[in-house]
Write a structure and sequence with these properties.
two-stranded antiparallel ribbon, 4 helices, globular, binds zinc ion
């Protein structure tokens, strides 16, 4: 079963145009199997994109851990990514404040890293 899944996964990633993204996806999938925290990923297994490109999706709101989630308002938070300056900010959709949590800092850190990795590939 595991072998079958791995084969399918490799085939899936070969269809991705950005070879650097495909490589990072595969490397992070492998790393997860040996204990790498999926929330530290800079590529997204679900959307098969760089994290900063799909972090806007509702799939990235995790209320349990506080990722893209304001605990005060019990409301999702939005992430804005400025590709030019590399600035990443998280704001609650209701109170407009930045949820102050390790999860928010992790999102900002990972999105910055994903942005940098994607831009490296383009040069
Ligand atoms: Zn995603
Ligand atoms: Zn709020």
């Amino acid at each position: 079963m595991t072998t079958l899944l791995q084969t399918t996964r490799r085939d899936t990633y070969t269809g991705i145009r950005d070879p650097r993204l495909a490589a990072v996806l595969a490397a992070e999938d492998d790393a997860e199997e040996t204990g790498f925290n999926p929330l530290e990923r800079i590529s997204c297994r679900v959307h098969r994109r760089w994290l900063h490109q799909c972090v806007h999706s509702p799939a990235h709101v995790i209320s349990v851990t506080g990722h893209r989630w304001c605990r005060n308002c019990e409301c999702p938070a939005s992430v804005s990514v400025d590709e030019l300056t590399g600035a990443v900010t998280v704001h609650c959709l209701r109170c407009r404040r930045t949820p102050d949590s390790p999860a928010t800092r992790q999102i900002v850190r990972c999105c910055r890293a994903s942005l940098a990795a994607a831009q490296d590939g383009r040069r």
